[in-house]
Amino acid sequence: MNKKELLLSLGMILMILISSGPLQAQKKIGTETLEQKEKRMKWWTDARFGMFIHWGLYALPARHEWVQSREKISEQDYDKYFKNFNPDQFQPKLWAKKAKAAGMKYAVLTTKHHEGFTLFDSKFTNYKATNTPAKRDLVKEFVDAFRAEGIRIGFYYSLIDWHHPDFTVDRYHPLRPSDDNDQEYLALNKKRNMANYRRYLHDQVTEILTKYGKIDILWLDFSYPGKHGKGKDDWGSVDLLKQIRKPELLSKKRRGFYEYMMGAVCLQKHEYEAAEHHYELASQYPLRTLNDHVAALVHVANISIRQGNYDKAEAYLQLALQDKEKITAKMLAVIDRLKQEIKKH
């Protein structure tokens, strides 16, 4: 990163320290007073000394973390680093002990950098450490080791993602046109949908904030507005900050959505037992609409019928019909067909 990029990055970085109080003082997001902010940030002001572990697939080529962008490396050529990622010198317990001995009070880890590869076991991508020769959640190992030494936990997460198919090609993307041609940008982005990526971004941020216990620091990197760039609207920054403010609520509100989505994924893969499990869990949490809740119950009933478990199917259909007057006609027709199927047996 050159000096101009570094200054812009530092200017746009969203560094959020999570505590029991509100997280932002912006009028649009919270009502935190200056005194409240100072109290919340006191530990950070006093800490002064910590560790930042910057690490990902780019450690293999060892030519800067921006190597994929700088050298315009294609997804196919970059894939060799994914296939050979096996960090045999990853020793978080040793690092944590040394950090404590040195007087460090916090440690931040790159959970995902611009290349899109996650060191954690994300539900939303296959491009993760658990699918490499490493075969494990490296973020969990980091958290467990540093937390055991009394060191506060921080996560870096890149807003950028050069791997995601819906992340639009911009001036830093490895696929960017060589001559900054507007028409080429339009052609490259014709089948990409930033709204899909935005949902993915928000879901992964929620995931890392609710999966590993209390997270003290969240470092989001970075915005670069202007021609063929990305700014706050591309990330949905205001909504994202609202999510970050109350992760303890999101762990419940978003859980149903996660399970519902995973049920759909398993269903597409014909993994019916797994799909049934996810839909059962989804039905136990708040979903976006009543129809989604009913659909989760109906999915369980349908799978149960295919497995010959007619009593369970009947029970789930009865649950689905508890708010019969609010269910759509299309969903009622599906329920009726399944009830007819049960009667045959």
Mean pLDDT: 86
Shape: globular
- What structural class do helix, strand and pairing data support? alpha/beta
Largest sheet: 5 strands, mixed
How many strand elements? 5
- How far the N terminus sits from the C terminus, by CA atoms, comes to 67 Å
String of helices and strands: HEHEHHHEHEHHEHHHHHHHH
Radius of gyration: 23 Å
The total domain count is: 2
Low-confidence stretches: 1-28
Helical amount among residues, as a percent range?
Answer: 40-55%
Strand order of the largest sheet: 1-5-4-3-2
Strand content: 5-15%
What is the fold's blueprint, element by element?
Blueprint: H1 3-12, E1 14-17, H2 34-47, E2 50-53, H3 67-70, H4 75-83, H5 92-102, E3 106-112, H6 138-148, E4 152-158, H7 182-188, H8 194-210, E5 217-221, H9 232-235, H10 237-245, H11 247-253, H12 255-268, H13 272-282, H14 290-306, H15 310-320, H16 329-343
Parallel strand pairs: 2-3, 3-4, 4-5
Antiparallel strand pairs: 1-5
